[in-house]
Amino acid sequence: MSTENEGNAVPPAPSAPPVPVASSDSSPQDPAPGGSAPTTPLPQVPQDAPATPGTPAAPEPASAPAAPGHGPMAGEAGPSGPPHAAGPAPDGSWPPPPPPTPAYGDGASHGAPYGAGAGGAGFGAGGGWGASYQQPAPKPRNGRGGLIAGVLVAALIAGGLGGGLGYTLAKDSDSRGSTTVSASDSGAAQVKRAPGTIASVAAKALPSTVTIEAESNNGEGGTGTGFVFDTQGHIVTNNHVVADAVNGGKLTATFPNGKKYDAEIVGHAQGYDVAVIKLKNAPSDLKPLPLGNSDKVAVGDETIAIGAPFGLSNTVTTGIISAKNRPVASSDGSATSKASYMSALQTDASINPGNSGGPLLDATGAVIGINSAIQSTSNGGFGSGQSGSIGLGFAIPINQAKYVAQQLIKTGKPVYAKIGASVSLENTTAGAKITEQGAGGASAIEPGGPADKAGLKPGDVITKLDDMVIDSGPTLIGEIWTHKPGDKVTITYKRGGQEHTVDLTLGSRNGDN
After folding, report:
1. Most buried pick, 37, 102, 193, 253, via CB within 10 A?
2. Is residue 110 domain-resident?
């Protein structure tokens, strides 16, 4: 799956077959009285509001996204009702003759849908909604028509009663004063927020999150989020949050209490989309957020996201883990941008541009991921033209991010695991195909590398890494990068229609170049 970060689109990957969703027609609104529209638009009538019965609309299928090209070494960055019928003139004699009493069901089927047929068939011949006016017989009404009439009458009575009461209360209030009641603010009446509640978790985590502002030398930049990693002043965030400040730009981090600190980049990993910055003159009372175990996360677990969506700092949203091991390739959409790959935690907690780099917490307040990317309909937000959340957010698992952050703090450069083979980045369901030629005309199989030693050849299609199904090149890269150099893995591949399995030891590559 391809996604976007900070609201910039990249080519999406194929998804599961769309599920048809029933839709309904909406009714146009009547114009405002007096011929002029009000300043504030009136809310639209909900599409699922009761309307004149009819046939439901057919579902519309979703469209399938397109796919990107091919690229680097695996493990490397590279209705309305019927009209009223005219009836005969009413009899002028008094008392008027009694109305005819049609037999129930005459002229209509009992099974006809409500409102179906001319004159609302189903209420008897001549007794439908399109029949001429007849004085009602003094007997109880049968069927849904009577129910609707009763509801309308009740509504009118309630409206009149409410109006009268409103006038009386307004008049009485002139002499009796306000009748509002304030809640007691005594200690015994204060709300107690037990440990483990969202409010409690947020109260503990917010002081250890920061809003990051990155600005390049030409004044361009953006806003993101980060969180305290250790007591030395290291802050973990996304690479794309600080990218504008990499070459001599300006970087600041602001805490919820308003204190702002200048910061510098310690190291950044474009492929992992992880970066570490350090506060200048860091305070001595920093409290790092506890790190959880993303391998133990289960689908359905509660999640809490903290960030600065659209610049709204210190925003807390909640959701669940929607999926695990979701292959994601994300990019900022620029011409020079290289994709980042992850085997992501998917969450429906609301994540928007500005949430990037912020912590994704579990119900205990431990960090289980770094919010990094969203899938969006690109319908804008706050007039900025940026994409907004549709409940598909992706976070880098903290177990991977922790390893990367530690490497950046130690050496300033990332270390990537690799198999030493160039694979196609076309999104397919067949697997990751080793290309015939590598980038820049190089060999598709690195001489002496892990793939070469394992006997892999150009044209082989890798379908599994250990027990993880591989459906494309990006999926393979993201899965390799969940491992460390030196890890032993089992590769399942197809060659000439035959399936083979081989073990190999992952190699390493330092830096993003």
Report:
1. 253
2. no
The torsion angles phi and psi of 476, rounded to 5 degrees, stand at -65, -45
Annotation marks residue 230 as catalytic: no
Determine the residue type at 152: L
One domain for residues 393 and 444: no
- The residue annotated as part of the active site, out of 2, 313, 331, 356, is 356
Q: Which residues of 386-422 are buried (b: 16+ CB within 10 A; e: fewer)?
A: bbbbeebbbbbbbbbbbbbbebbbeeeebbbbbbbbb
pLDDT 10s digit of each residue in the chain, 513 long? 545 564 333 334 433 333 344 444 444 444 434 443 333 343 444 444 444 444 444 444 444 443 344 445 555 444 444 444 444 444 444 444 555 444 433 333 333 333 333 333 333 333 333 333 344 444 443 433 333 333 333 333 333 333 443 444 444 445 555 567 766 655 545 667 787 899 999 999 999 999 999 999 888 888 999 999 999 999 999 999 999 999 889 999 999 999 999 999 999 999 999 999 999 999 999 999 999 999 999 999 999 999 999 989 999 999 999 999 999 988 765 656 678 999 999 999 999 999 999 999 999 999 999 999 988 765 444 444 566 788 889 999 999 999 999 999 999 999 999 999 999 988 777 899 999 988 888 899 999 999 999 999 999 999 999 999 999 999 999 999 999 999 999 999 999 999 999 999 999 999 987
Q: Out of 240, 268, 331, 472, which one is annotated catalytic?
A: 240
**Are residues 302 and 343 located together in one domain of the fold?**
yes
Total-model pTM: 0.65
| Residues facing residue 394 across a β-bridge | 346, 373
Helix (H, G, I), strand (E, B) or coil at 402: helix
Domains identified in the chain, total number: 3
Residue 399 CA to its chain's centroid (Å)? 23
Catalytic residue (choose from 2, 234, 268, 273):
273
- The range of the structural domain enclosing residue 304 comes to 294-376+388-398
Please tell me whether residues 306 and 393 are part of one structural domain.
Answer: yes
Does residue 491 lie in a domain region?
A: yes
Please confirm, yes or no, whether 273 is among the known catalytic residues.
yes
